[in-house]
Write a structure and sequence with these properties.
By secondary structure, the protein is α+β, with helices and mostly antiparallel strands. Helices cover 31% and strands 29% of the residues. The chain has helices at 57-60, 75-105, and strands at 2-11, 18-26, 30-36, 43-49. The chain binds zinc ion (ZN).
Length: 113
């Protein structure tokens, strides 16, 4: 037998207007929470078991969040290509500097690549 054990005012979860809520005892092992909104007609409810066997740890397990998204196709190749370009540019700069230093000093050891 269902018995209303508490009534009051709450906010509607849909439109945030003032709404009626009540707790209803459903037999001896469950309680139902209802919000009935007169403004938008929303009928929100939750049912919770009050029985000690209601605790199921597996129901509390939340899977880890999925990765933010699969990498864009070809993104890795573009990154590698960009790094190769930077590396080539850095080598060119270093080679120029080595040439300048060699010219300036005349006696610099030969750079090996
Ligand atoms: Zn509402």
């Amino acid at each position: 037998m269902n018995v209303v054990v508490e009534r009051g005012l709450a906010r509607c979860p849909r439109c945030a207007a003032t709404a009626d809520y009540c707790f209803i005892e459903c037999g001896t092992e469950a309680i139902r929470y209802e919000i009935e909104c007169r403004s938008c007609g929303e009928l929100y409810f939750e049912e919770n078991s009050t029985s000690p066997t209601a605790f199921r740890p597996e129901s509390l397990w939340v899977p880890p969040p999925a990765p933010a998204g699969e990498p864009t196709p070809g993104a890795q190749e573009r990154v590698v290509a960009e790094l190769r370009r930077w590396w080539a540019a850095a080598l060119a700069v270093l080679s120029k500097l080595a040439e300048r230093a060699k010219t300036a000093c005349g006696s610099m050891p030969t750079w090996r690549r």
